[in-house]
Structures are given as C-alpha cells and as structure tokens.
Design a protein that fits this description.
- The chain is an alpha/beta fold.
- Helices cover 48% and strands 14% of the residues.
- An eight-stranded mixed sheet has the order 3-4-2-5-1-6-7-10, with helices on both faces. It has a two-stranded antiparallel sheet with strand order 8-9.
- It is globular, with a radius of gyration of 20 Å.
- It starts with a strand and ends with a helix.
- The chain binds adenosine-5'-diphosphate and magnesium ion.
- Adenosine-5'-diphosphate binds next to helix 1.
Length: 332
C-alpha cells in the first residue's frame, strides 16, 4: 500500500478534481484497489462522490464513520479507533472515508500534541501519527489518496507525516510558485523537529508502533491546471502569453525546492505528470452526475463537441495516472 497526498498550499488549483478522477482512473483502468480519505474539513471530495440525499442521511446519523471518527477518540484519551468503515463508490470504483467539517475542531489538538511530540512525549507522537495508525489498518489497498485543504496547519502536517508521496496540482501563477517554496520550508522544518522529538524519547520501548522515526514523504510529481490553452498556427496547444513566463519557471522552482531538498536521491524522473486544460462545462456535469469526467455520457448532458473533450480528459487522466505509477515505481 502506498499513501499519496494530493496537496498544495494553495486552494482552487484542482486538487479535489484531480484526486476524484485519478482514483477512478487507477481503479477502473489499472485494476488498483483505491481508498480515498477526505481529510479536508471542506469535504469537497465527499460532495463530489455522494449525492445530496446520501450526504443528508450520512451526516444525520451520529454513528456514521467519518475522518472525525478516526481522530476524535484521541481527544478523549481513548487511543486509536480500532475499526475503519470506508464506504464504497461504484461510480468511482473506490472506497472512501468521508470528510467531516468537525475535523477542523481537531486542529488545536494536533497542534498541541505536535509540540509534545517534539519534546519526545509519547502521547504527542501517538496523536501526530494518527493517520499512520489508520493506514496500518488499510493495507489491503494499493493506493490511499488523501484529499486535503490548502493550509500548512496541523491536520495537513499529520497527513504529510504519514504519507509516502505527495502530488501537487498547481495553477500557473506566481502564488503557486510561492506555495511550492512554502511547502518545502514547512516539510524541512517538520523533518527537523520530528528528528528532535525522536531523539527526545526517553524510553524506546514506548515508541508508538506505527509512528515514523523520520518524515519520509517523497515528491511524486505535479500537475498544471486550468490555464487557457490556445492553438498555435501549427495546431500545437500553447499556454497564452500571460502564463508562459510562469510555465517556464515551474520546472526550476520544482527542482530547486522539492527535488534538491526533499528527494532522497537523484532519480531520473519527469516530475511533470500532465497538464489539464479548462474543461469548462464538463466539470459541473461530472459534479452533478457524481461521475469521473472521463465517463460522462449523453445522459449526463454531454452534447456535440463535448464528446471530444470527454475523450481528451480520458487521455489526460490516463497519462497522469501512468506517469504517477511510473514515478512511484522509480522512487520506491
Ligand atoms: N480542469 C478544470 N477546468 C475547469 N474548471 C475546473 C477544472 N478543475 C477544477 N475546476 C474547478 O475549479 C474549482 C477548484 O477545483 P478543485 O478541484 O475543487 O480545487 P482544490 O481542491 O484545489 O480547491 C472547482 O470549482 C472546480 O469545479
Ligand atoms: Mg479541494
């Protein structure tokens, strides 16, 4: 099992859209067993995969298993929740641990217990690695994909500490370049502080079984999103002029931050997993139908030129999925 965070310290760059479609593509076209964990308190991945009626029923029932059920027992001093109850989504071919707005109430707990983890306290390490403990119960999957909000706060730190890889969707603007730098600075900091915490642990025998001794997350690639593509005279797709400068800078910013600072060794890898154009009305169609974009049909509202766009999206998500599988293989 490999755990992959779909993460960027910038909102609205297509993280959730990529995650839902990638989950479906890896399951349906590569036969992978996929679990989606909606760790964003905004719950957009959950909303993309469950109908409004289903959501009403699920959140009306206090027994429904959500991401909150994973973290909450720790605040009560009850230890980890032993059972995991994901739900299955036929349309996306994957299982899901649904999101929960109450997860944001745990930001403080995770922040406090991170300080305690850095001091070498076992309780702090146990809370900090709550998602590693969860993942230990999810070994039957090939991939676990985490959807996350855009912050560099304690919930996302806990997710990134537990994941094996992260993939960053990004828009082509200066803020995305800054976000790359922020992520690198934060991960370096967390790595250092975890190292201090591990050294401070008094009795090795107490070290929580599924906590990590180092932050081992690797960068598996990036996906550029939603630039306005124009066709040149030769029929090639090109980003419009306003974006070209930024587009050119991305590989170097990725190299200088993620590759040279975070990667374990210099593997020859193409980190550009793919580039997704503006898919216009296919996006709300897929949200409404609760289906992957690449499986939209006439009954979902697809007409005329949209069919070619659906096919194009299938090719694009296919390319991203294959590049990701390849990078994960090379990175080990
Ligand atoms: N390829 C695309 N073309 C057009 N709109 C998109 C595309 N991908 C995402 N969107 C829209 O952009 C917004 C942000 O996407 P989302 O996946 O929710 O980003 P994030 O999870 O990073 O906040 C959403 O309203 C979504 O519907
Ligand atoms: Mg999102």
């Amino acid at each position: 099992m490999k755990a992959v965070a779909i993460f960027n310290n910038k909102g609205g760059v297509g993280k959730t859209t990529l995650l839902c479609n990638l989950a479906a593509y890896l399951s349906k076209n590569h036969g992978k067993k996929i679990l989606v964990i909606d760790a964003d308190p905004q719950c957009n991945a959950t909303q993309s995969m469950f109908s409004d009626d289903e959501i009403d029923d699920l959140y009306d029932n206090s027994k429904t298993f959500t991401i909150y059920s994973v973290v909450h027992p720790l605040s009560l001093g009850k230890g980890y929740s032993e059972v995991v109850h994901p739900m299955h989504r036929d349309n996306f071919g994957c299982d899901v641990i649904i999101g929960d707005p109450r997860l944001s109430l745990k930001e403080d707990l995770l922040a406090r217990d991170w300080s305690s983890a850095v001091s070498g306290e076992i309780r702090g390490l146990r809370t900090t690695f709550v998602f590693s403990e969860l993942l230990a119960r999810c070994q039957q999957y090939d991939f676990v994909l985490f959807d996350m909000g855009p912050s560099l706060g304690s919930i996302n730190r806990a997710c990134l500490l537990s994941c094996d890889y992260f993939v960053s969707p990004m828009s082509i603007d200066i803020f995305s370049l800054r976000a790359i730098e922020n992520i690198r600075i934060s991960i370096e900091n967390w790595r250092k502080n975890l190292g201090i915490g591990v050294k401070n642990v008094e009795d090795e025998n107490d070290f929580p079984g599924n906590a990590k001794r180092e932050m081992s997350i690797k960068f598996a690639g990036y996906v550029t999103q939603q630039y306005t593509a124009k066709t040149t005279g030769k029929g090639e797709k090109r980003a419009v002029k306003a974006y070209e400068r930024i587009m050119k800078k991305i590989p170097k910013v990725i190299q200088d931050n993620f590759v040279s600072h975070l990667q374990p060794k210099d593997n020859i890898i193409d980190y550009a997993l793919g580039s997704i154009p503006n898919l216009h009305s296919l996006i709300p169609m897929s949200q409404f139908a609760r289906k992957p974009i690449f499986e939209l049909k006439a009954k979902d509202g697809v007409v005329g030129a949209h069919f070619a766009k659906v096919q194009e999206s299938k090719r694009l998500f296919g390319q991203i999925a294959e590049n990701l599988l390849n990078n994960v293989e090379v990175l080990g």
